[in-house]
Amino acid sequence: MPEDDIGFLGVEELAARYRxxxxxxxxxxxxxxERLEALEPRLNAVAHVMPEEAMRDAEHAAAELRAGKDRxxxxxxxxxxxxxxxxxxxxxxxxxRVRKPVIAVDDALLVARLRAAGAIVLCKxxxxxxxxxxxxxxxxxxxxxxxxxxxxxGSSGGSAALVAAGIVPLSVGTDTGGSIRIPASYCGIVxxxxxxxxxxxxxxxxxSWSLDHAGPLARSVADxxxxxxxxxxxxxxxSPPSLSGLRIGLASYHCDSPELTPxxxxxxxxxxxxxxxxxxxxxxxxxxxxxxxxxxxxHIIKPEASLIHADLHLENPRGYAxxxxxxxxxxxxxxxxxYLRAQRFQAKLRQAVEAxxxxxxxxxxxxxxxxxxxEDPEFTEDGEEGEMLASGFANMTGHxxxxxxxxxxxxxxxxIQLTGRLGEDEKLLQGAHSIEAALxxxxxxxx
Length: 447
Fold this sequence. Notes:
CATH superfamily of the largest domain: Amidase signature (AS) domain
Number of strands: 15
CATH class of the largest domain: Alpha Beta
Mean pLDDT: 97
Structural class: alpha/beta
Number of helices: 16
CATH topology of the largest domain: Amidase signature (AS) enzymes
Number of domains: 2
Strand order of the largest sheet: 1-5-2-8-10-9-14-15-13-11-12
Strand content: 15-25%
């Protein structure tokens, strides 16, 4: 089988072929390393590659399968890990120059769970500096497999690009204001921010402890569900897709935003028409609190991030990218009353979203109001929503939220975001699985 075709196989097909003997983890990991080498540094998606360790683990996985030891669907599957997550014995660089890369003593808990399930860590992925929305000029942004002249998004851009480019079928990202879902949309793949706390963040360098989430990026909802099962330590079982009776609420603040490009707005209309034709019940939902979600998120993320970075800032402020440094300083200046007011609003917003989800099964929004730009947009200030238009609210509330492909604007992917009830990640993924099947919108990049 051609290398490219192997690179784009899903987890379930890889697992089946491992077990019928037509492929082995050794071959798949070897092809992944070859494809990675061919596409780097054009994508600039990788922070650190582990070829010897990955091949050793692939040989071990293959030997276990031959001996009848089967660890489950992720056994022998190569994965990539965002470079703010500890991988035992490997450097963590945070895409920064504040400190030299730190060698992790232990695996982060989520990495340990992946290893226990037989997954093979292939590499650490590039990101925006400390996941704070800015590419360090010494490192640069990750480029989009659909158009390397454009960004793959942030902050989990490297994790998204490697999945979209057919190097790994699964990767782990983090999401504090959309950092899984935004790159997923730009790269035309699936990105899930689970319910707050469902996936452990021990061993993940924090950005904002009350907003941080870790979760999967994949090329299908089914693959994302398999990875979530492992990361969360909870069985996620999907049924065959069906839109019959699925109640979808269009979040009016997001869907009617003037920031949507004409192509995104038209794609949204086309999506709704398709879903209604196939049996979904679609209606518009107005949640007034959404208009303040991102401005209030900034009043939480800035002081929390600055407290986390206090020692680093004292140690080597010049090691930051200038814009990252400006954000860290700005957080020190955030009034305590603004932070407390935002926390009070956070509880109100959570209640408002959960109340609306009593009447619909999922909320639907455009994932991002535009396709992938040339460079990562700046962290917007009050009065602008930008790429976080639809994503930030779910970090504030903790609701599970997923981006799936919804179409193309020329050669650039577009995505829709689906948000479900707190703690009901399996139901959200079931709805996303059904919508994904109805849209059939995945496009493989030509890179």
